[in-house]
Amino acid sequence: MKRRAAALALALAAVAVTAACASPDHGAVTLTAVAPAADTAAPPADLWGAASALGDQGRGEFADTWSALSLDGGRNRVLLYATDADRARQLVAAARRAHPETARVPVDVTVCGYSARDELAAAQRVMAAQGDGRIHLEVLGATPAADGTGILVHATAETLKSPAFARQVRAAAGEVPVRLVEGPRAVPAEGPH
């Protein structure tokens, strides 16, 4: 009985893999309301190539909508955060034209509130406000959020207790939402994200 169940499971897995490979949407751009949880498996090389191609476009012609990327190695997908679904599809198409070898990598698009350009500008405004005295307590770091939802401002636990600090940081950031985070200085990754 166990052998039969195992054989059936293997057969179903083979059918699922075959169907996925033959699927007409293989390499498709999928719009999602919420980003799927990224797997912790090491991403294959084709994911890195696709992410690099998307990043090149996102930091160039599509900086108005580009926010961030995440690699889902377990599902062999790239998760693209962008402020506009149509522009995100254009970004993906441009990346695939520039790097055709990445065309079979699926890209899930999650619409978010803020571009990396806007988030980075808000983070820079916060750090400038610290430097010119508009923020009276120490900001340890300010970085774009990894999902296009605003910026993260790092400070000590003592600093975070100050309502004035929160008001000053939010005023400096402008329209971009701020999440205050206890912790050490943030170390930015290469590029905006």
Report what the structure shows.
The protein has 193 residues and is of the alpha/beta class. The chain has two domains: 26-111, no CATH class; 116-182. The chain has six helices and seven strands; from the N terminus they run αβαββαβαββααβ. The strands form two sheets. Strands 1-4-3-2 form a four-stranded mixed β-sheet. A three-stranded mixed β-sheet has the order 5-6-7. It is elongated and about 50 Å long. The termini are far apart. Residues 1-39 have low confidence and may be disordered.
Number of strands: 7
Instruction: Estimate percent helicity.
Output: 40-55%
Number of domains: 2
Terminal CA distance: 51 Å
Strand content: 15-25%
- Uncertain segments are 1-39
> What is the arithmetic mean of pLDDT?
80
Gross geometry = elongated
Structural class, from helix and strand content? alpha/beta
CA gyration radius, whole angstroms:
21 Å
Largest sheet, spatial ordering of strands: 1-4-3-2
Number of DSSP helices?
6
Specify the biggest β-sheet. 4 strands, mixed
